[in-house]
């Protein structure tokens, strides 16, 4: 068995089956949502740091645009002034990317669990203390087949992505600036990409995608509570 399976895939699969046996009462949809929530809780510190950093970068974007305009013919000076700005604002421009990179192997493992594990062929990966359910019923909530593609669920995932991205946008951003145009492109392109990719996956994986995006948006909503709407 490969190291990836031992360290990531097998533990995640066992947690999913445990939740399927206990918390969800053999409802795979509920088990997937519970697994998503559990992973969000585990990675809350990393996700919080990434959100705070991303929001801080959005907030100083007008200052960044001013520097780019002022030193557009001197890239070396621009670089030094940008680093000075980050230092003054106490912002690490790479801190929002690091948590995502750390969680990428987890996402790949979850993908493998849903693509390979949900067909019942990998139940031999269960730990001795986890009851073997024999098979995993892929009908969620009594009517929803998680083994086939679901365009409506992909659309829901896209809407959740739009909500999450919209919350991070800086409304004080200079209209017509490069940053403003890029952010608008991201606002609409990310949901479209989510819908296209989500509609090609089995609904079980799309449900996980929707749930993790929705919980991330709720986390942002909670973190930004009380802040002025203009920020």
From TrEMBL:
<feature type="transmembrane region" description="Helical">
    <location>
        <begin position="7"/>
        <end position="23"/>
    </location>
</feature>
<keyword id="KW-0653">Protein transport</keyword>
<dbReference type="GO" id="GO:0032977">
    <property type="term" value="F:membrane insertase activity"/>
</dbReference>
<protein>
    <recommendedName>
        <fullName>Membrane insertase YidC/Oxa/ALB C-terminal domain-containing protein</fullName>
    </recommendedName>
</protein>
<keyword id="KW-1133">Transmembrane helix</keyword>
<feature type="transmembrane region" description="Helical">
    <location>
        <begin position="146"/>
        <end position="165"/>
    </location>
</feature>
<dbReference type="InterPro" id="IPR047196">
    <property type="entry name" value="YidC_ALB_C"/>
</dbReference>
<keyword id="KW-0812">Transmembrane</keyword>
<keyword id="KW-1003">Cell membrane</keyword>
<dbReference type="Pfam" id="PF02096">
    <property type="entry name" value="60KD_IMP"/>
</dbReference>
<dbReference type="GO" id="GO:0051205">
    <property type="term" value="P:protein insertion into membrane"/>
</dbReference>
<feature type="transmembrane region" description="Helical">
    <location>
        <begin position="91"/>
        <end position="114"/>
    </location>
</feature>
<keyword id="KW-0813">Transport</keyword>
<dbReference type="InterPro" id="IPR001708">
    <property type="entry name" value="YidC/ALB3/OXA1/COX18"/>
</dbReference>
<feature type="domain" description="Membrane insertase YidC/Oxa/ALB C-terminal">
    <location>
        <begin position="29"/>
        <end position="223"/>
    </location>
</feature>
<keyword id="KW-0472">Membrane</keyword>
<feature type="transmembrane region" description="Helical">
    <location>
        <begin position="186"/>
        <end position="211"/>
    </location>
</feature>
<dbReference type="GO" id="GO:0005886">
    <property type="term" value="C:plasma membrane"/>
</dbReference>
<comment type="similarity">
    <text>Belongs to the OXA1/ALB3/YidC family.</text>
</comment>
<dbReference type="GO" id="GO:0015031">
    <property type="term" value="P:protein transport"/>
</dbReference>
<dbReference type="InterPro" id="IPR028055">
    <property type="entry name" value="YidC/Oxa/ALB_C"/>
</dbReference>
<keyword id="KW-0143">Chaperone</keyword>
<feature type="transmembrane region" description="Helical">
    <location>
        <begin position="29"/>
        <end position="46"/>
    </location>
</feature>
């Amino acid at each position: 068995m490969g190291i990836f399976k031992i360290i990531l895939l097998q533990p995640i699969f066992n947690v999913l089956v445990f939740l399927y046996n206990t918390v969800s009462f053999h409802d795979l949809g509920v088990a997937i949502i519970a697994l998503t929530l559990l992973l969000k809780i585990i990675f809350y510190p990393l996700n919080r740091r990434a959100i705070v950093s991303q929001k801080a970068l959005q907030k100083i974007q007008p200052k960044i645009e001013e520097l780019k305009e002022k030193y557009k013919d001197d890239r070396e000076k621009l670089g030094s002034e940008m680093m000075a700005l980050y230092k003054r604002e106490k912002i690490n421009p790479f801190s929002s990317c690091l948590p995502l990179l750390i969680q990428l192997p987890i996402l790949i493992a979850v993908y493998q669990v849903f693509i390979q594990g949900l067909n019942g062929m990998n139940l031999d990966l269960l730990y001795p203390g986890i009851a073997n359910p024999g098979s995993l019923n892929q009908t969620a909530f009594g009517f929803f087949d998680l083994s086939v593609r679901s365009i409506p669920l992909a659309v829901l995932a896209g809407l959740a992505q739009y909500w999450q991205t919209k919350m991070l946008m800086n409304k004080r951003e200079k209209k017509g600036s490069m940053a403003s145009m890029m952010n608008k492109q991201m606002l609409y392109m990310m949901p479209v990409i989510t819908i296209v990719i989500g509609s090609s996956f089995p609904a079980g994986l799309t449900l996980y995608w929707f749930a993790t995006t929705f919980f991330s948006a709720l986390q942002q909503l909670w973190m930004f509570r009380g802040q002025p709407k203009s920020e």
